[in-house]
Amino acid sequence: MEAYDYSETVAYLLDWYEQNARILPWREDPKPYYVWISEIMLQQTRVETVKTYFERFIKEFPTLRDLADAPEDKLLKMWEGLGYYNRAKNLQKTAQLVFEVFDGELPSDHNRLRALPGIGTYTARAISSIAFQNPVAAIDGNVLRVMKRAAGSYDNVMKEKVRRELEEELTRIIPKDRPGDFNQAVMELGALVCLPNGRPLCESCPLMHLCKAFHQGIQMKLPVKDEKKPRKIEERTIYILEYNKRFALHKRPEKGLLAGMWELPGAEGRGTIRDVKNWIRDQQDKDSSDKVIFNIEDFGVYRHVFTHIEWHMTGYYVTLAKPVGDFIYVDADEIEKKYAVPSAFAPFMQRIMETRLQNPTEDQR
Fold first, then answer.
1. What is the pTM of this model?
2. Distance in angstroms (rounded) separating the CA atoms of residues 76 and 92
3. For 12-57, how does the pLDDT look when each residue is reduced to its tens digit (9 = 90+)?
4. What CATH number does the domain containing 52 carry?
5. Domain endpoint, select from 221, 254, 277
6. Same domain, 336 and 209
7. Residue 99: left if φ>0, alpha if ψ -120 to 50, beta else—which one?
8. Residues labelled catalytic
9. Residue 72 domain-assigned (yes or no)
10. Model confidence over 271-292: pLDDT tens digits?
11. Phi, psi of 248 (to 5 degrees)
12. SS (H, E, C) 88-102
């Protein structure tokens, strides 16, 4: 296939970006700390969602020092709802390393950035170009889609060689005076016009006249990717344990999925009412014969999708006469203010928060 001249796209992309770029808080003030935080938040998360989280996060941790010194529980609470909580933990590890190794300033070189926790090749190059104006191309899914459609290329974008070759080609032609704008322009075009799902908005695209996929009518066939492997299904039973308007929480292990996060108690498999009773009995002191269950309510079945795993959760609301298990019991207000619970448990947490309306405290009346 004839080589595609990506340099022809530069002027059109920059002109389009000037007219159409979304107003985003980290763009209005692209200091390195802001760019870094936004890029980590934007991994696996939509821009519109990130805007609110970013502003709240920066208000709570306005400087890199504030982030480095933050209590982990407070950090995770501020991250609650964004998911992939290792991102937040790596943010803090990086902040601490920056003070230990780089005198409290994020390095500008993308290779040094790449060596920091949680910063991959794309993120390092994005920070380096946007925050420090270094002429390096940043290749994410949006850039691959825009450029491979423009080139009419059937290269498999999941292959590292293909990504690396495009990275080298775009770094060669990136405008030295506006590298950050160029990278953001391609990403913005991919997010707003050259869409990943559904038909791209070709009539609104500044590269339409240069796009081989458009002229050949093959937009929907590109870019080429490997087929996704099916997710592993895991059946789980989740217990909302209420004792005296307080609810049981416990911490997950420090390694593995949702490491160190607070969660509702649960068990593997899809439990029945009998399983619930047996499980509660197992949580009691061995010598105890007390009846501790007031009521068991079937709470329904819910699904949560992670990247490679899908949880199918059967829920039960259990009202207790006395606390059981090695859990902490906290009220809804405490949970909302202090404890970061992953969004996988959102339907169950919503029910817990609703109890405040049913059983208001003196302060809430």
1. 0.86
2. 10
3. 999 999 999 999 999 999 999 999 999 999 998 899 999 999 999 9
4. 1.10.340.30
5. 221
6. no
7. alpha
8. 39
9. yes
10. 999 999 999 988 887 656 568 8
11. -80, 130
12. HHHHHHHHHHHHHHC
